[in-house]
């Protein structure tokens, strides 16, 4: 598998001190990426933040020269992912990860996944495609280019229980794509990392487990160790 990437989710941070929280987790505790959960109250039953807030926190996080540290991994839990490309590019988003279910939903105006990926690239961002726990992995087969996100909880809220039933999908994708970044998101922490790593996930989102820890640096190091061992 590719290298371990630890991406704490700021959903579990103190939103009243967002800049400080982001800088402490990337610049001090050694996180690789920052996982930024964007929810619009339509695709999921919750609302978080939009591009203006992302713009404000971008400056507090050091950016590495290479594609490694300080990456803003924006998880777009929104009904119309095609709508926000320019805003998020401008805000400093590096990786724009949309949901397959939103891109393919026929009831709203939509841009199909393959087209959306091309658009994301044309704006100079990396693309990611996510699936919810009940969506099969094979929908991702034709969408080779970018990161694959396998949700391990129903998207919408932090602090939920990790769903191990999603691991066969991670295995299936890892077998097929040995070099691809495969991200897992939801309920990851020291108690669940081993199963996820064993299945082949290398990009680990962890909200509660990192931001709720006394020593986030230690948790990040342990998560990394579990993926790399
Ligand atoms: C859920 C979000 C997750 C969430 C993870 O909809 O996509 O990124 O914040 O939080 P924990 O790690 O607490 O489950
Ligand atoms: Zn997320």
TrEMBL record:
It holds the Pfam family Ribul_P_3_epim. SUPFAM superfamilies: Ribulose-phoshate binding barrel. Its EC number is 5.1.3.1. GO terms for biological process: carbohydrate metabolic process; pentose-phosphate shunt. It catalyses: D-ribulose 5-phosphate = D-xylulose 5-phosphate. Keywords: Carbohydrate metabolism, Cobalt, Isomerase, Manganese, Metal-binding, Zinc. A divalent metal cation binds at residues 35, 37, 75, 185. GO terms for molecular function: D-ribulose-phosphate 3-epimerase activity; metal ion binding. Coiled coil: none annotated. Its cofactor is Mn(2+); Fe(2+); Co(2+); Zn(2+). Binds 1 divalent metal cation per subunit. The keyword Disulfide bond does not apply. The keyword Isomerase applies. Substrate binds at residues 9, 75, 156-159, 187, 207-208. Gene3D superfamilies: Aldolase class I. Pathway: Carbohydrate degradation; pentose phosphate pathway; D-xylulose 5-phosphate from D-ribulose 5-phosphate (non-oxidative stage): step 1/1. The active site is at residues 37, 185. InterPro entries: Aldolase_TIM (IPR013785), Ribul_P_3_epim (IPR026019), Ribul_P_3_epim-like (IPR000056), RibuloseP-bd_barrel (IPR011060). Belongs to the ribulose-phosphate 3-epimerase family. NCBIfam families: PRK05581.1-4 (NF004076). This is Ribulose-phosphate 3-epimerase.
